[in-house]
Amino acid sequence: MLGGLNAASMSGKQEYRRQDSDASGCSSIADSPIYTKLTGKLISHEDMEFERNKRIYFNAALHRCTPKAFAIVESVNDIKSALKYCQDHNCPVCIVSGGHSDYGLCDNALVLNLSNMKKIEIDVEHQVAYVQPGVLLGELDNVTVKHNLATPLGTSSSVGFGGQALDLGMGFLTPMFGFLINNVIEYELVRADGEVIKVNRHSYPDLFWGMKGYGANFGVTINYKVKLHRIPPSMIGGRCYFAWQDAKAVVKHLRQFRNVIQQSCFAASIILHIGKTSFQVFYRLLYVGNLNDGSAIVNMLLQSCPAAPLFKDIQPLSYDVFQASCDYMYESGKHVYQSPGHFLEDLTDHYIDTIVDSMSVLNVTENYCSVVYFNVLGGAVKELSAHESPFLFNNANWWVGAVGSSAEPDGYEKVFSVISGMFSKLEMYAMVPDPQSVAANERRLKALKTKYDPGNLFSNNPCNIIPDIAP
Predict the structure, then answer these.
(1) What is the pTM of this model?
(2) Residue 334: what are its φ and ψ, rounded to 5°?
(3) Model confidence over 82-99: pLDDT tens digits?
(4) Where do the domains of the chain lie?
């Protein structure tokens, strides 16, 4: 859903997290110096806005957490003040930009809300964007397409750029241009000690490597310099829906078609969507190139498909419109489980059959929503250097993942059981990185964590690295 996948190294159920902290004589955070130092806003338990700020999070499972306060930061000095408070008072810190991360809220934490840091600058001549972390994906797309430029982003327009640019960033431009992390040229970072550094290939090169997938471990990133790519003002894209009983045949057909038509400008995903009223299976297609060529490829795919479409909405459209066209599937305020999924070299019949059969046991009701993605990779992903980032799945041809949600907490257990059980059955098909490469990455990342965040202040993230303890 989010296009981010440090989930590749995550596993298991996301639990409600409680952390202890030491008030160190402050009966309320509002009594501490941070209250007067912020140019933004500090929202504590005493404020009427406190509960409303908990509700900004996409996953309702987080709403029962009780943080110490929310710091709506607007400047580097705000961030420095907040980090100093956390270290002085042994207070956990959480960071949120768009509100989709399950690690943006926990008990007793000071939450740094970056959503007001929304500046975007476009250097058209050099095809570069300067982006602050509070920008949403849809907001960036809306700006870049005006110049016929874009960068690979996930496919939910309400997701925050900041979290995704530190994670992976998988979307419909990935087969052409790689993941979002491969297109970040520079990070501007506030370290735990308050120092502000610019991290790129020439300055802090080892940290630059670690930031690509594990960046939330090392500080608060306040600016991103991102590579942009030329795209047409209009391209062929949209969705084509099929009957649920044809789901297996539809997935297998795209698999076979993609093996024959290996064009990185043709991006495709198969989505199984169990919504409020129906089971849906559909192709989501985008051809980043000439309109006539795109129409020909799409027609070839559909005319050779063994199942007849029920409905299709495929036409010339702008990239930002395409990106936002499936936002309806992601309803905020439900109890959500997002599976890490699998990177695959091959998509087998048994894998496809197991996914469809497993999802078929869920009921179509107002309470449940589940989405399974079969995302085509290959292309530029296979051309990425193995030394460019800690990502170890460059040979993947597919990523299959799922998000399940329930309006009620009790329903979450069923969604979790179905989705996690489904992927457990298929674990033998998942790509397994070379153990020596994994071990080398772990050593390198641990050394970076020990150097730049030895106290593990930035522990609330999807893949926390435990630093070495000083002797």
Answers:
(1) 0.91
(2) -105, 165
(3) 999 999 999 999 999 988
(4) 6-113, 120-230, 235-317+334-429
